[in-house]
Amino acid sequence: MGNMDGKSVEELSTTECHQWYKKFMTECPSGQLTLYEFKQFFGLKNLSPSANKYVEQMFETFDFNKDGYIDFMEYVAALSLVLKGKVDQKLRWYFKLYDVDGNGCIDRAELLNIIKAIRSINRCNEKMTAEEFTDIVFQKIDINGDGELSLEEFMEGVQKDEVLLDILTRSLDLTHIVKLIQNDGKNPQEGEQDAQAAQKKRKEKEKEKEKEKEKEKEKEKEKEKEKEKEKEKEKEKEKEKEKEKEKEERHQGKKGRNSTHEDRKERKEGK
To answer: Comparing 213 with 80, which gets the higher pLDDT?
Structure first.
């Protein structure tokens, strides 16, 4: 437990282990994942009968000690193989996964059902049908033509044929599962939609902030205009005061001149 076909937990980085442990314990506080929790964890809902059977088979291959649960060490060992395992390690695991009845061989029906199940889960659109793909696999690597693939035939045949290896890797891809793990158990499409929604919200907030800034600028401009108006009013008042003062001074000057004239007149009359 904790090692699978040569891939050990120790080969993972500390950061990866901590990240996976946090996700695992968040979804499964008991530390032991049941089949039901396994499906819930990876968002595997409304599966077809073939897809459901495939998921159950996957659960069994993850459950190394066959106690009916997947603990953290089993979980990490399996996922580390999927993410970082070598081709031959992955092929051995694939073979074990696809050998549903456990008789040491993969027959045509087993492979066909598995291809259909995985395509159903991954929602992939392949040009080749599952039946056509299954026929090609058996034509190329069923050397003795007995309608069954032994581990040796499967390993050697797939590794020798690059085209088949590429098609097989894509058709039997577990990326959907890995993406669910990397997105905290969310469907990758949902995760992308959430990211887009979050980005949209950020942009909307930025626009709101820009609008608020513009409003503040407008308010400042209005305040400046009011200040200018007040200054103009003050200037007008000062001008009015100056005019009143000048008027008063002129009036006083006129009175003074009239008084002097009266004095002179009185003096003349006195003589």
So the answer is: 213
